[in-house]
Amino acid sequence: MQKPDSRRSTESKSKKQLQQELENLYSHLEDCGLCDIPNVEVSLSHILLQDKRSQGVIMDLALDAIVIIDDSGAIVSFNRSAEALFGYRRSEVKGRLIADVIIPPALRQQHHDGFERYLETGVPHIIDRRVEVRAMRADGSEFPIELTVTAFHARGVRYFTAFIRDISRRLEMEQRIRQEKELVQLLHRLTSLANEASNTLSAMKGFLREVCEYTGWPVGHVYMLEEDDPCPRLVSSRCWYLADEKRFRQLKQITERTVFNVGEGIPGRVLATGKPVWIEDISADDNFPRARVSGELEVRTSFALPVVVGQDVVAVLEFFTPEYTENDETFLGALSHIGIELGRVIERDRSAEQLRYLADHDALTGLPNLRVGRDRLNQLVVSGKRQKRPFALFYLDLDGFKKINDSQGHEAGDRALKVVAGRIAGTLRDMDTVARIGGDEFFVLLSGIESKASVALVAEKLIEVISRPIASVAVGKTLGASIGIALFPDDACEADELSRLADKAMYAVKNQGKNSYRFYADIDSADD
Fold first, then answer.
1. Closest Cα to residue 102, out of 133, 70, 71, 80?
2. Structure confidence at residue 41 (pLDDT)
3. Phi, psi at residue 343, to the nearest 5°?
4. Closest to 239 measured CA to CA, from 275, 274, 266, 200
5. Rounded to 5 degrees, what angle do the CA atoms 367, 496, 263 make?
6. CB 119 within 8 A of CB 159
7. Measured on CA atoms in the order 181, 183, 185, 191, is the torsion positive or negative?
8. Are 10 and 54 within 8 A, CB to CB?
9. Which residue has the higher pLDDT, 17 or 142?
10. Can you tell me the distance from the alpha carbon of 223 to that of 320, in angstroms, rounded to the nearest whole number?
11. Comparing C-alpha atoms, which of 440, 520, 435, 433 is closest to residue 479?
12. What average pLDDT does this structure show over 510-521?
C-alpha cells in the first residue's frame, strides 16, 4: 500500500478542516503546558515551512503571535497576530534578525549569547519551556510577553518557532490584585492598632509608621486642632515618622513653627473640606506656605487625610515624598478610613484634653513648647505692667550637646535632653516656667523675683545641676549651660525685646568661654 502524500492531503483540506486541526493541536499544546511538542515528522512548525498554503492559513488563524527563525536568527515567517502585536508588516521583517526586530536592546546580548550557546552545544535553556520576558514593538515601546520556543529541522536546516502572547493585562491584573490585598492588610493592621493603642500619641506614631512603610514615603506628620481657639487652626503635634531626620530637618523645623488656619496649605484644606487632599507637585502649588518659606524642603508630592471624631476634623495626617507621584484616588479613598480609626482612639482617650497637651508640650521632654512659653511670657509682661511685678527671662543653651550627639548618636542625645529637662524643672518653683524652644535650647521665666542676686543664684544652681554626670552618657561626656538673662522692667518692657536681649546675653557667654551666665545689663555696660 502506497504511503499517502502528506503535501497533497494537506492541500486538499478546506479552511474549516485546517482550522479544526489547528484547534486540536492547540488543545494538545495546552494539555502539555506548551512545552511538549511531539517529535513527529508532521509537526506544526514542519507543516508551516513545507506547505505554503498551510503556512498562510494555519498561522493566520492562530490567536497567538507565531514567529519562525532560521539558525542565523533571521525571520522566515511572521503571522498576522505577530503583525498586530508588534506593529510590523511581515514584508518589513522577513529576512531581518529577530534581535533587531522584537528584542529590546538591553536583552540582545543575552539573546545572542544564549542562541550561540545552543547552536554549539545543543543544550537548551528556554527551548520547550514557557518563560516570561520583555519584547519590543515597532515604535520602540517594551511590554511583557509569555514565550514558548520549539526547535526543529526541515530541509536540512534548523529552525525555531516562537509562540508569543502579550501578558500585559494579566500582569496588570495580578499587580492590582496584589496591591488591593496589601491595602486590605494595611487597613486590618491599622484597625488592630487602633483597638490596642494605649493612648493617642502611640496610635498616631503607629499609624504614621504603617502608612509610610506601606507607601515607601519617608515623611509622616500629624497636625492637631486647637479647639479652644475661637478661630480654628492647626498646630504641629511634633509627632513624626522620619526615615532620614537629617535630610528632612528643614521641613521639620518649618512645619513645627507653622500654624494653619482653615483653608491654608494642605492641612488647612483638609480641615476646611473634611476630605483627603493630594498635591502632585508642591513646587507648582500656590497654596503651600511652607514651600514659600523655603524652596529646599526635599519633598515633591504630598497627601493629607482628616482624622474625624463624629463629624468634626480634629487632626490631619500628612505624608511627603521626594518623588513625583500621580494622584491615586482609589488609594486615597481607601486610606481615608484610617482617619476614622484614629478618631476612635482620640475619642476614647478624651481627645480634646489629649490633643491640647500634645499641641502645648514638647514630645521628647514633656516640657511646654515654644508657643506655650511665649504665651506665658506675654502674660507676665501684661501682669507685670499692671501690677508692677518684676521677672527674669533666661535663654539657656546646652554646651557640649553636639559632641554627645555626634559621638554617641541621637538616642543618647535624646536621653541626655530628657535628664536635663527634668533637672531644670526640678530646680524651679511651681510658679516658674521652663520651655524647650529648640534642639538644645530652653527658656526659663522666673516670676516674683526679689533681687538681681536671687536671680543669679538660680542661674548658678541650673549650671551646677546640668553639669552633673548623666548615667546614660559615657564617662567624660558632660554638659554645661550658657545662660543669658534679661530683666523686666529694667532691661525692657516688651516680650520680643526681652527675648532679643536674653538671646544676646547668652551668645556673649558663648563667646567668652561658655558654661556661665551673664545679665544683659552687664554686657551692655561692658560694651560702653
1. 133
2. 33
3. -60, -35
4. 200
5. 70
6. no
7. negative
8. yes
9. 142
10. 14
11. 440
12. 92
- What local confidence, expressed as pLDDT, does residue 9 receive? 42
Region 56-77: mean pLDDT is: 82
Q: How far apart (Å, rounded) are the C-alpha atoms in residues 232 and 225?
A: 7
From start to end of 350-500, where are the E strands?
391-399, 433-436, 441-447, 480-488
> Partners of 147 in the beta sheet?
131, 164
How many CB atoms are located within 10 Å of the residue 368 CB? 21
Name the residue with higher pLDDT: 350 or 116.
116
Evaluate whether 164 touches 68 at the Cβ level (below 8 Å). Answer: no
Per-residue cell: 324: 513625583
Q: Please give the C-alpha separations between residue 262 and each of 74, 226, 340, in angstroms, as whole numbers.
A: 68, 12, 20
What would the grid cell of residue 93 be? Answer: 521583517
The residue to which cell 546675653 is assigned: 505
Which residue carries 478546506 as its cell?
A: 14
Q: How many CB atoms lie within 10 A of CB 217?
A: 21
Greatest mean pLDDT range, 24-33, 119-128, 489-498: 489-498
Interatomic CA distance for residues 87 and 81, integer angstroms: 10
> Cα–Cα distance between 502 and 525 in angstroms, integer?
15
pLDDT value at residue 179: 75
- The more confident residue out of 217 and 42 is 217
> What is the C-alpha to C-alpha distance for residues 345 and 204, in angstroms, rounded to an integer?
9
Pairing of strands 312-321, 277-279: unpaired
Locate 143 and state its grid cell.
511590554
Tell me the pLDDT tens digit for each residue of 159-213: 899 999 999 998 888 887 887 787 778 878 888 887 887 788 888 898 899 889 9
How do the residues of the chain divide into helix, strand and coil, expressed in percent and rounded to 5? 50, 25, 30
Task: Provide the 8-state DSSP code for 369.
Answer: B
122, pLDDT greater than 50: yes
385 Cβ contact list (under 8 Å, min separation 6): 489, 493
Per-residue confidence (pLDDT) for residue 37, from 0 to 100 = 39
pLDDT of 328 higher than 50: yes
CB distance 301 to 285 below 8 Å? no
> Residue 517 in 3-state DSSP?
strand
Question: Could you tell me whether strands 312-321 and 391-399 are parallel, antiparallel, or unpaired per DSSP bridges?
Answer: unpaired
